[in-house]
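Appendix B, record 7
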Amino acid sequence: MTAAKLRNIGPKSAAWLRQVGLRSYEDIAAVGTVEAFMRVKRAGFKPTLNLLYAIEGALLNCHWQEVPDTRRNELIAAAEAATALLPAPRNRPAAGPVRTTVLTEDTVAMPPSYDDGYDDEPAAEGRDEAEERE
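Structure tokens (predicted):
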């Protein structure tokens, strides 16, 4: 099952997971909840704890709000410990926003061009058009 089809995983979270190489349930299950979360964080995105719970819920096939409090606390502790091991930021900008581009055929015709090749400004006084072209 692809990350986009997993329970609790919306389009933005699925895009983040794809960008860090986690494209299926099997990929996420192989690395685990905390490592999947940390890969997104290390990539420069700004995930919240909701992503951590959503990944866990996807692996358990339950709604993210149904993840037990004891398990949530374990996940938070593991994520905080892993975050503490990250190197200090080097004043680099965070990764850009995720965009999905859908290419479709243009359905609206382009407006006609109003540029007929002539300059709309009147000629300067004391000069005729022949002098302007030189």
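Remarks on this record: The mean pLDDT is 82. Residues 3-84 form a domain with the DNA polymerase; domain 1 fold (CATH 1.10.150.20).
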